[in-house]
TrEMBL record:
This is DNA polymerase-3 subunit delta. It comes from the Bacteria. InterPro entries: DNA_Rep/Repair_Clamp_Loader, P-loop_NTPase. Coiled coil: none annotated.
Length: 379
């Protein structure tokens, strides 16, 4: 991948290029980028620039043997690590077990998130991990001599999925073999092991600028200017979210939310229990549950925007805009803030394997109390 193929982020591109040109390259760095800002593409473009045999002033050449291999993710001195799942019970998976899928995913969804990746490999409701076995494999690979490049490079995507087993890598990070580089690409600084965070150079990447997002949507996705403006306004620098709005219908989540709120307001306990059974089933999956809660949060934000912005500047469907208008009559700003906090909390506990039925049952009770302006029960 070339720097020229990445949306915006001119300052970060320049910073990375100059670190090589001025010989100020850190042997271990974290590219900390919010979802959809291009952290993974930047990391991949940087690795290609590092191994390129005929570097240009502002980019890799894209034509030498090293560039071709790097662009196809087959360069022998660039290793990749990312969350994976066991293919069957008892497996101790490593990233190379999924290298074919990884190459396909990066080409198809370079701005995708961990949820997209895990669904791509069929994880369903399984939680991905970067395992202790993976850490041992990394140590083994990076202690070998390089084959073709002057560097040996590890690109680790989503180090947040490292548990305490990540401490196995500390000695290697502190005292790496010569010309060994660690490029970690993360979204959430708080979820990175503190021991690793303290030993790496942190490069913070901002969400995409609105102007860059609009240009990308118009030129890469053939989106009309007015629609590109709407989506860029709504997604706040998240290109992954922008593509999601373009490519996927929200009808399922919309109807799911409509049914939930209807059951809550009518007090239909039987229907509510059936709804909870459905949303917490294995078929729905934990990641899909989190996406649903995120959709609800986005709709709450949309409801607030409707009170202050021109409807024509917003990217939700007319049906969702109408629903948001009705929601505004049911909850004031303070109530919507309380609801959003409860939804964020629920998403946090889903990530930590909370029981789905108990979680959505408790969340339903809390929302009923919030809508009725009653103090929340202690649970």
């Amino acid at each position: 991948m070339l720097f020229s193929e990445i949306i915006g982020q001119a300052d970060v591109k320049q910073q990375l290029i100059q670190s090589v040109q001025h010989n100020r390259l850190s042997h271990a760095m974290i590219l900390l980028a919010p979802e959809g800002a291009g952290g993974l593409p930047l990391g991949l473009a940087f690795t290609q620039y590092l191994v390129c045999e005929n570097k240009k002033d502002q980019d890799a050449c894209g034509q030498c043997a090293a560039c071709i291999k790097a662009s196809q993710f087959v360069h022998p001195d660039i290793h990749y690590s990312y969350p994976v799942i066991p293919r069957k019970s008892g497996d101790k998976p490593v990233s190379t077990d999924y290298i074919s899928e990884w190459r396909e995913f990066v080409v198809a969804q370079p701005y995708g998130n961990a949820y997209d990746w895990l669904q791509f490999i069929g994880a369903e409701n399984k939680q991905g991990n970067i395992t202790a076995t993976e850490c041992q494999d990394i140590i083994h690979k990076l202690n070998l001599k390089s084959f073709e490049s002057g560097y040996k490079i590890l690109v680790m995507w989503m180090p947040e999925y490292l548990g305490n087993e990540g401490n196995r890598l500390l000695k290697l990070i502190e005292e790496p073999p010569k010309n060994t580089l660690f490029i970690l690409i993360a979204e959430n600084q708080e979820q990175i092991l503190a021991t690793i965070l303290s030993r790496t150079h942190l490069i913070k990447i901002n969400p995409l600028a609105k102007a860059d997002m609009i240009v990308a949507l118009e030129e890469r996705n053939n989106v009309p200017a007015s629609r590109a403006q709407q989506i860029a306004t709504l997604t706040a620098g998240n290109y992954r979210e922008a593509l999601y709005l373009l490519q996927h219908s929200e009808d399922d989540y919309h109807e799911l939310l409509r049914s939930w709120l209807n059951h809550l307001f009518t007090g239909n306990r039987v229907a509510l229990q059936e709804w909870i059974e459905g949303i917490s089933s294995a078929k729905t999956g934990r990641e899909n549950q989190k996406q649903f809660l995120r959709y609800f949060i986005n709709l709450l934000e949309h409801t607030i925007r409707l009170q202050y912005l021109d409807k024509n500047l917003l990217a939700f469907s007319p049906e969702e805009t109408d629903f948001a208008g009705k929601l505004a009559k049911l909850a004031n700003l303070d109530q919507m803030q309380e609801i959003a906090e409860e939804l964020n909390n629920a998403s946090y506990y889903i990530e930590r394997n909370a029981n789905g039925k108990m979680l959505f049952h408790a969340l339903s009770i809390k929302l009923q109390y919030i809508f009725k302006k009653k103090p929340l029960p202690v649970m």
